[in-house]
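Good morning C.,

I know you're traveling, so I'll keep this short. The sequence:
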Amino acid sequence: MENIHTFPRLNERAPDFKARTTAGDRCLDDYKGKWLILFSHPADFTPVCTTEFIGFARHYETFKSMNCDLLGLSIDSLFSHLAWIRNIKEKFGVEIPFPIIEDIKMDVAGAYGMVHPGAADTQAVRATFFIDPNGILRAMVYYPMSNGRSIDEFVRLLKALQTSDANPGVATPEGWTPGCDVIVSPPKTAEAAEARAGEGYKYTDWYFSTKSL
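The C-alpha coordinates, ready to paste straight into the viewer:
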Protein backbone atom coordinates (compact mmCIF):
# COMPACT_ATOMS: atom_id res chain seq x y z
CA MET A 1 0.00 0.00 0.00
CA GLU A 2 3.01 2.31 0.43
CA ASN A 3 3.28 3.06 -3.32
CA ILE A 4 -0.37 3.90 -3.92
CA HIS A 5 0.19 7.62 -4.38
CA THR A 6 3.38 7.47 -6.47
CA PHE A 7 3.30 8.33 -10.16
CA PRO A 8 5.42 7.08 -13.06
CA ARG A 9 7.10 9.57 -15.37
CA LEU A 10 7.14 9.92 -19.13
CA ASN A 11 10.23 8.81 -21.06
CA GLU A 12 11.38 6.58 -18.22
CA ARG A 13 11.01 2.82 -17.94
CA ALA A 14 7.48 1.81 -17.05
CA PRO A 15 7.14 0.19 -13.63
CA ASP A 16 7.71 -3.55 -13.76
CA PHE A 17 4.86 -5.79 -12.73
CA LYS A 18 3.98 -9.45 -12.46
CA ALA A 19 0.31 -10.19 -12.09
CA ARG A 20 -2.35 -12.82 -12.51
CA THR A 21 -4.73 -12.11 -15.40
CA THR A 22 -7.69 -13.71 -17.14
CA ALA A 23 -5.19 -15.18 -19.63
CA GLY A 24 -2.61 -16.40 -17.10
CA ASP A 25 0.35 -14.64 -15.49
CA ARG A 26 1.71 -11.55 -17.22
CA CYS A 27 4.72 -9.29 -16.63
CA LEU A 28 6.00 -6.19 -18.40
CA ASP A 29 8.77 -8.10 -20.18
CA ASP A 30 6.15 -10.29 -21.89
CA TYR A 31 5.43 -7.29 -24.10
CA LYS A 32 9.01 -6.50 -25.07
CA GLY A 33 9.18 -5.66 -28.77
CA LYS A 34 5.56 -4.51 -28.86
CA TRP A 35 3.62 -1.46 -27.81
CA LEU A 36 1.37 -1.98 -24.81
CA ILE A 37 -1.66 0.02 -23.74
CA LEU A 38 -2.29 -0.68 -20.06
CA PHE A 39 -5.59 0.75 -18.85
CA SER A 40 -7.43 0.68 -15.57
CA HIS A 41 -11.09 0.89 -14.67
CA PRO A 42 -12.76 1.53 -11.29
CA ALA A 43 -14.72 -1.71 -11.03
CA ASP A 44 -16.21 -4.64 -12.91
CA PHE A 45 -19.93 -4.67 -13.70
CA THR A 46 -20.17 -0.90 -13.97
CA PRO A 47 -21.85 0.66 -17.02
CA VAL A 48 -19.20 3.18 -18.13
CA CYS A 49 -16.43 0.58 -17.83
CA THR A 50 -18.52 -1.87 -19.83
CA THR A 51 -18.80 0.60 -22.72
CA GLU A 52 -15.04 1.17 -22.62
CA PHE A 53 -14.24 -2.53 -22.69
CA ILE A 54 -16.59 -2.97 -25.63
CA GLY A 55 -14.81 -0.06 -27.36
CA PHE A 56 -11.37 -1.54 -26.75
CA ALA A 57 -12.58 -4.94 -27.97
CA ARG A 58 -13.98 -3.46 -31.18
CA HIS A 59 -10.64 -1.73 -31.87
CA TYR A 60 -8.57 -4.75 -30.87
CA GLU A 61 -7.64 -5.77 -34.41
CA THR A 62 -6.66 -2.19 -35.23
CA PHE A 63 -4.29 -2.07 -32.26
CA LYS A 64 -2.96 -5.52 -33.13
CA SER A 65 -2.18 -4.35 -36.69
CA MET A 66 -0.12 -1.55 -35.13
CA ASN A 67 1.99 -4.01 -33.10
CA CYS A 68 0.16 -3.06 -29.91
CA ASP A 69 -1.29 -5.28 -27.19
CA LEU A 70 -4.02 -4.30 -24.72
CA LEU A 71 -4.06 -5.09 -21.01
CA GLY A 72 -6.87 -4.08 -18.66
CA LEU A 73 -6.80 -3.79 -14.87
CA SER A 74 -9.05 -3.30 -11.90
CA ILE A 75 -8.67 -4.20 -8.25
CA ASP A 76 -11.45 -6.78 -8.55
CA SER A 77 -10.75 -10.50 -8.30
CA LEU A 78 -9.96 -12.80 -11.19
CA PHE A 79 -13.32 -14.51 -10.74
CA SER A 80 -15.13 -11.19 -10.94
CA HIS A 81 -13.25 -10.41 -14.17
CA LEU A 82 -14.20 -13.77 -15.65
CA ALA A 83 -17.85 -13.34 -14.72
CA TRP A 84 -17.90 -9.81 -16.15
CA ILE A 85 -16.39 -10.68 -19.53
CA ARG A 86 -18.80 -13.61 -19.80
CA ASN A 87 -21.65 -11.20 -19.04
CA ILE A 88 -20.44 -8.76 -21.73
CA LYS A 89 -20.39 -11.59 -24.26
CA GLU A 90 -23.86 -12.77 -23.23
CA LYS A 91 -25.60 -9.39 -22.94
CA PHE A 92 -23.78 -7.32 -25.58
CA GLY A 93 -22.50 -9.96 -27.98
CA VAL A 94 -18.91 -8.74 -27.64
CA GLU A 95 -16.00 -11.02 -26.77
CA ILE A 96 -13.19 -9.43 -24.76
CA PRO A 97 -9.97 -10.59 -26.47
CA PHE A 98 -7.39 -9.09 -24.11
CA PRO A 99 -6.34 -10.03 -20.55
CA ILE A 100 -7.48 -8.24 -17.40
CA ILE A 101 -5.16 -7.99 -14.41
CA GLU A 102 -6.38 -9.04 -10.98
CA ASP A 103 -5.00 -6.41 -8.60
CA ILE A 104 -6.70 -7.01 -5.27
CA LYS A 105 -3.61 -5.89 -3.31
CA MET A 106 -3.34 -2.80 -5.55
CA ASP A 107 0.31 -3.49 -6.34
CA VAL A 108 0.11 -2.56 -10.03
CA ALA A 109 -2.37 0.27 -9.43
CA GLY A 110 -0.01 1.69 -6.81
CA ALA A 111 3.11 1.44 -8.97
CA TYR A 112 1.35 3.21 -11.84
CA GLY A 113 -0.36 5.92 -9.78
CA MET A 114 -3.83 4.71 -10.71
CA VAL A 115 -5.36 5.48 -7.31
CA HIS A 116 -5.89 9.20 -6.71
CA PRO A 117 -6.68 10.70 -3.29
CA GLY A 118 -10.04 12.40 -3.43
CA ALA A 119 -11.28 10.19 -6.26
CA ALA A 120 -11.31 6.90 -4.38
CA ASP A 121 -8.93 5.19 -2.00
CA THR A 122 -9.95 1.71 -3.07
CA GLN A 123 -10.59 2.10 -6.80
CA ALA A 124 -8.38 2.85 -9.78
CA VAL A 125 -9.32 5.90 -11.82
CA ARG A 126 -9.54 5.65 -15.62
CA ALA A 127 -5.81 5.72 -16.32
CA THR A 128 -4.27 4.77 -19.67
CA PHE A 129 -0.56 4.18 -20.26
CA PHE A 130 1.23 3.85 -23.60
CA ILE A 131 4.40 1.78 -23.23
CA ASP A 132 6.72 1.43 -26.21
CA PRO A 133 8.52 -1.74 -27.40
CA ASN A 134 11.52 -0.89 -25.21
CA GLY A 135 9.39 -0.68 -22.07
CA ILE A 136 9.49 3.13 -21.94
CA LEU A 137 6.39 5.01 -20.81
CA ARG A 138 5.48 7.38 -23.63
CA ALA A 139 2.05 8.78 -22.77
CA MET A 140 -0.40 8.86 -19.87
CA VAL A 141 -4.07 9.82 -20.03
CA TYR A 142 -6.34 10.15 -16.98
CA TYR A 143 -10.12 10.41 -16.97
CA PRO A 144 -12.48 10.85 -14.01
CA MET A 145 -14.49 7.87 -12.89
CA SER A 146 -17.71 9.46 -14.19
CA ASN A 147 -16.70 9.82 -17.85
CA GLY A 148 -15.68 7.28 -20.45
CA ARG A 149 -12.60 7.43 -22.63
CA SER A 150 -12.47 7.76 -26.42
CA ILE A 151 -10.80 4.69 -27.91
CA ASP A 152 -10.59 6.43 -31.29
CA GLU A 153 -8.34 9.03 -29.65
CA PHE A 154 -6.05 6.30 -28.34
CA VAL A 155 -5.73 4.85 -31.84
CA ARG A 156 -4.91 8.34 -33.14
CA LEU A 157 -2.36 8.97 -30.38
CA LEU A 158 -0.61 5.66 -30.99
CA LYS A 159 -0.36 6.43 -34.72
CA ALA A 160 1.08 9.86 -33.87
CA LEU A 161 3.67 8.39 -31.50
CA GLN A 162 4.73 5.81 -34.05
CA THR A 163 4.95 8.48 -36.76
CA SER A 164 7.22 10.69 -34.64
CA ASP A 165 9.42 7.68 -33.85
CA ALA A 166 9.69 6.75 -37.52
CA ASN A 167 10.46 10.33 -38.56
CA PRO A 168 12.95 11.92 -36.15
CA GLY A 169 12.69 15.68 -35.83
CA VAL A 170 8.97 15.98 -36.52
CA ALA A 171 6.00 16.51 -34.24
CA THR A 172 2.29 16.15 -34.93
CA PRO A 173 -0.11 19.10 -34.55
CA GLU A 174 -3.48 19.17 -32.80
CA GLY A 175 -5.87 16.59 -34.18
CA TRP A 176 -3.24 15.08 -36.49
CA THR A 177 -4.20 11.98 -38.46
CA PRO A 178 -2.18 10.06 -41.08
CA GLY A 179 -1.94 12.05 -44.30
CA CYS A 180 -1.88 15.42 -42.56
CA ASP A 181 1.25 17.58 -42.51
CA VAL A 182 3.69 17.26 -39.62
CA ILE A 183 5.56 20.04 -37.82
CA VAL A 184 9.29 20.40 -38.41
CA SER A 185 11.43 20.94 -35.32
CA PRO A 186 12.19 24.66 -34.81
CA PRO A 187 15.75 25.82 -35.48
CA LYS A 188 18.08 26.07 -32.49
CA THR A 189 20.35 28.96 -33.53
CA ALA A 190 19.92 32.45 -34.96
CA GLU A 191 21.69 31.37 -38.13
CA ALA A 192 19.40 28.38 -38.57
CA ALA A 193 16.32 30.53 -37.91
CA GLU A 194 17.43 32.95 -40.64
CA ALA A 195 17.87 30.08 -43.09
CA ARG A 196 14.59 28.30 -42.32
CA ALA A 197 12.51 30.19 -44.93
CA GLY A 198 14.64 28.84 -47.76
CA GLU A 199 14.75 25.20 -46.72
CA GLY A 200 11.76 24.07 -48.77
CA TYR A 201 9.25 23.54 -45.98
CA LYS A 202 5.73 24.97 -45.85
CA TYR A 203 6.87 28.11 -44.09
CA THR A 204 4.76 30.30 -41.79
CA ASP A 205 7.49 31.76 -39.58
CA TRP A 206 10.98 30.78 -38.43
CA TYR A 207 9.60 28.68 -35.56
CA PHE A 208 6.62 27.19 -37.42
CA SER A 209 7.10 25.15 -40.58
CA THR A 210 5.40 21.98 -41.76
CA LYS A 211 5.92 19.28 -44.35
CA SER A 212 4.12 16.26 -45.74
CA LEU A 213 5.42 12.76 -45.22
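Safe travels,
E.
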